[in-house]
Write a structure and sequence with these properties.
This protein is an alpha+beta fold and about 140 residues long. The chain folds into two domains: about 60 residues, TTHA1013-like (TTHA1013/TTHA0281-like, 2-Layer Sandwich), CATH 3.30.2390.10; about 45 residues. Helix content is about 45%, strand content about 15%. It has four helices and four strands. The longest helix has about 35 residues. It starts with 15 loop residues before the first strand and ends with a helix. The relative contact order is 0.11.
């Protein structure tokens, strides 16, 4: 892909809201970028409609790699947003749990506990404890 031209801009931390609607009659998605008048596209799939929008971004002096925040304009759109937020929180909590489990495993090993006892205390298998000790 060619380098971005000098006239495109990328505002750090800014994502562009893509308002997405589905047309039941022709089975196509319509999308528009909020704040960029006339930046619209239609396609049969969400990835394709986003690709078409990205192709139009340089005309608005916006980098093709600018992040999109997709907003579904549909009765279930709010539920979709809630689910995505829940997934993000759950994944963050899983990473935190993994880090804490690794730290606590190391502390218990340092105290001389067996891998079976550590597994029993932490609710994980002794094989998983061994993997954590090895850094896997």
């Amino acid at each position: 892909m060619p380098a971005e031209s000098a006239r495109t801009t990328r505002i750090p931390g800014r994502s562009y809201r893509v308002l997405l609607t589905y047309d039941d009659h022709d089975g196509r998605w319509s999308a528009r970028v909020k704040g960029l008048s006339g930046c619209v596209a239609r396609a049969r799939t969400i990835p394709r409609v986003c690709a078409r929008l990205r192709g139009a971004l340089p005309r608005y002096r916006v980098s093709r790699t600018a992040p999109f925040a997709i907003v579904l304009e549909h009765p279930v759109g709010g539920r979709v947003r809630e689910l995505r937020l829940l997934r993000e929180r759950t994944e963050r909590a899983a990473r935190e749990m993994h880090d804490e489990t690794r730290k606590l495993t190391a502390a218990l090993v340092a105290q001389g506990l067996t891998v079976r006892d550590i597994g029993e205390l932490l609710g994980i298998s002794h094989q998983r404890v061994q993997q954590m000790i090895k850094g896997e």
